[in-house]
Each structure stands twice: as structure tokens, then as C-alpha cells.
């Protein structure tokens, strides 16, 4: 893709002075609900009012959206509050209806980005549009699939583009609903530095009390904006109740977030530094997470050794590990001294874990 600067003119031309904010309920439920939330978000930093009209649910039987009727409510939102509107489209019929109802921003959901057939159908239906189109990352952590979707839309002569990072699903239980895998978003930024990237902390966390921290990390990594699900009565929302915040909380979040300016060279330095520090923080968390997992596996070995009445320390095995890790460390630029010290400490902790189990 050449001429990627053009893709972000829709955002630059807004001259916001703050990150782009897309907010509104997960789902449009009733006309009164849609209008109430929109009115509470009027005169805030919110730039686009979002509401899901067609809801792709992982399992059938959950609320699947009000359908085209809700698009009329979004038209009323625009007329009453002046807010621009945004919704998810997942096929040609959705695109046609959204365009007929003058929706300003259309996004492709994570479950659609995984399918090149669907993405192509949407790209064909949107060909040449002057609406803003944002592409959520696919549910699985696959950068090419995400980039491929951007390319399909770009090829369909859609000029106002951007991506939304909403995290990735994993079979493992984590504190996130969808793990952020920040490195993947950073890789995408490196490939297309001009492509606007919006963070969706609501779907990453699945929990409203984690939204602030994830938003701050995103801003530290120079994301261009945030999409935050907002509802006047989150606990009683028809979908994604646990992750929605009230309009008042959204305003507070936006007030408390530290927004890094990037004007003069001093600011450029701070920006680069905080970007690198945010990457270090992420890696440090991953280190602790990995070490925790390693000790859990070690506990499992302790259980087995206890059953078989085998000694905790088996020096052959330990020397093998150490030799292999020193060699592998070398290929990553790690000194022998460092790898040795680190693995001695890890090994000691592992022995402590196993002894605790055997002597329990
Ligand atoms: C949504 O934004 O409500 C949604 C369904 O998101 P995702 O496609 O990220 O799951
Ligand atoms: Mn949702």
C-alpha cells in the first residue's frame, strides 16, 4: 500500500487536540436507551457515537441486536445531539442499510475480519465510499489476516481507513477477556505508521475496572484513539454488561488519562521514551506471567515425584537445561554469566516449590 498518509487525513482534519473517542452502548436496545446515552455523551470528548445494531454472538440465544430499526434511532441521535454515528457491518445488506441511514463510520468486527470472503464482500459493497471504515483485529492473533483486510479495503478505493485493536481470544484463562498481545499491534504500527489505530479496552478487558489501565497503555504506545462501550445502566445492559461504563465514568477516564503531546523535540524524546518504557512494562509482566507458569509446571513435577517417592534434585537433568539455555542465550545476545545467575535463581525457586509439595 502506498500513500498511506492519505488514510489518516480524516483524523488529522478533525484537529482534535485529544485522542479520538468512539463511545456508546455495546448494543442498541430501545430508542429511549439509545437517545438517553447519546444525550449524556453530548458535549463531552466523544466524537463518534457507537451502537451495535447486528450483534455477532459467539453462542446463539444471546441478544442478537434490534436490526435495521435501530438505524433510525441512530439518525435521531445525529439530529438531536450532532454526534456522528458508528456501527458494525458484517455483510453487504448491513452495508447498504447503514449507508442508506447515513451512518458516518462503519467497522468490521473481529469475527468478520477472520474471513477474507466476508471482508471482500464488505469491501465490494463499500467500494469508493467516503465514510470512515475501521477494521477490528481478527479474533486470532494473525497479523497477515488483519493487514489483508486493510489491503482489501484500500484496493476498493476506500480512503478513510483505520484499525481497532480489541485483543485476541485464547483458550487459556487470563485476566483479560481478549489478551492484548501488544507486540502485534506495535508490529502493525511499524508496518503502517500512518494508519490510525484505535484501542478497544472494553473488549480487551471484559471488565470495567480494568479499562483505565489498558487505555493508558494504549496512549503510551501512541494509539490515536479509544473505543469504549458506554451505557447509562451498565449492569442491566442486554450485552457485555460487565465491561460497560457509565457516561460519567467515561468523562472521568478521559480526564484522568495522561495524553502525551508530540510537538517539539523535547516532547518527541518523552514520547519515544514512554513508548519504549511501555514496551518494557509489557515484557516484564510477561516475564512474571511466564515464571509463574513455570512454577506451576514445577509443582506438577513435585506431585509426581512425591507419588513415586523420588528425590527432588536430579542433577543430570539440571545440567542439561543449563547447557541448553546458555547456548540459546548466546544467540539472543545474553551473556553466559547472566543466564547462569538467572537460571540458578529460577532453579532454586523451583526446588523450593517442589520441596513444599513433597513435605506437605
Ligand atoms: C462490539 O464492538 O460490540 C463487538 C462485537 O466487538 P468485537 O467484534 O471486537 O467482538
Ligand atoms: Mn460489545
Automatic annotation (TrEMBL):
One of its GO terms (molecular function) is transferase activity. Pfam families: CM_2, DAHP_synth_1. Residues 267-358 form the Chorismate mutase domain. GO terms for biological process: chorismate metabolic process. Keywords: Transferase. It is an enzyme of class 5 (isomerase). It comes from the Bacteria. Its EC number is 5.4.99.5. This is chorismate mutase. It comes from Pelagihabitans pacificus.
Amino acid at each position: 500500500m502506498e500513500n498511506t498518509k492519505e488514510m489518516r487525513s480524516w483524523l488529522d482534519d478533525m484537529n482534535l487536540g485529544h485522542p479520538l473517542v468512539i463511545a456508546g452502548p455495546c448494543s442498541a436496545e430501545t430508542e429511549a436507551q439509545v437517545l438517553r446515552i447519546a444525550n449524556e455523551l453530548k458535549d463531552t470528548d466523544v466524537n463518534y457515537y457507537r451502537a451495535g445494531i447486528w450483534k455477532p454472538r459467539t453462542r446463539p440465544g444471546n441478544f442478537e441486536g434490534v436490526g435495521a430499526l435501530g438505524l433510525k434511532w441512530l439518525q435521531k441521535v445525529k439530529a438531536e445531539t450532532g454526534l456522528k454515528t458508528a456501527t458494525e457491518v458484517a455483510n453487504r445488506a448491513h452495508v447498504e442499510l447503514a449507508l442508506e441511514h447515513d451512518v458516518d463510520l462503519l467497522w468490521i468486527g473481529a469475527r468478520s475480519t477472520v474471513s477474507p470472503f466476508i471482508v471482500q464482500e464488505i469491501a465490494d459493497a463499500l467500494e469508493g465510499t467516503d465514510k470512515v471504515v475501521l477494521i477490528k483485529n481478527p479474533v486470532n492473533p494473525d497479523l497477515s489476516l488483519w493487514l489483508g483486510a486493510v489491503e482489501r479495503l484500500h484496493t476498493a478505493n476506500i480512503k478513510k481507513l483505520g484499525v481497532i485493536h480489541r485483543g485476541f481470544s485464547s483458550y487459556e484463562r487470563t485476566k483479560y477477556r481478549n489478551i492484548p498481545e501488544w507486540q502485534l499491534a506495535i508490529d502493525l504500527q511499524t508496518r503502517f505508521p500512518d494508519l490510525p489505530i484505535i484501542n478497544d479496552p472494553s473488549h480487551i478487558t471484559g471488565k470495567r475496572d480494568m479499562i483505565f489501565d489498558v487505555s493508558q497503555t494504549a496512549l503510551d504506545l501512541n494509539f490515536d484513539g479509544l473505543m469504549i462501550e458506554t451505557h447509562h445502566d451498565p449492569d442491566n445492559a442486554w450485552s457485555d454488561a460487565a465491561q460497560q461504563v457509565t457516561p460519567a465514568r467515561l468523562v472521568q477516564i478521559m480526564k484522568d488519562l495522561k495524553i502525551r503531546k508530540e510537538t517539539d523535540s523535547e516532547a518527541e524524546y518523552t514520547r519515544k521514551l514512554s513508548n519504549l518504557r511501555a514496551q518494557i512494562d509489557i515484557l516484564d509482566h510477561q516475564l512474571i506471567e511466564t515464571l509463574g507458569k513455570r512454577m506451576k509446571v514445577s509443582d506438577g513435577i513435585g506431585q509426581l515425584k512425591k507419588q513415586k517417592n523420588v528425590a527432588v534434585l536430579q542433577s543430570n537433568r539440571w545440567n542439561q537445561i543449563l547447557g541448553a539455555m546458555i547456548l540459546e542465550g548466546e544467540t539472543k545476545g545474553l551473556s553466559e554469566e547472566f543466564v547462569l545467575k538467572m537460571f540458578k535463581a529460577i532453579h532454586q525457586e523451583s526446588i523450593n516449590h517442589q520441596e513444599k509439595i513433597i513435605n506437605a
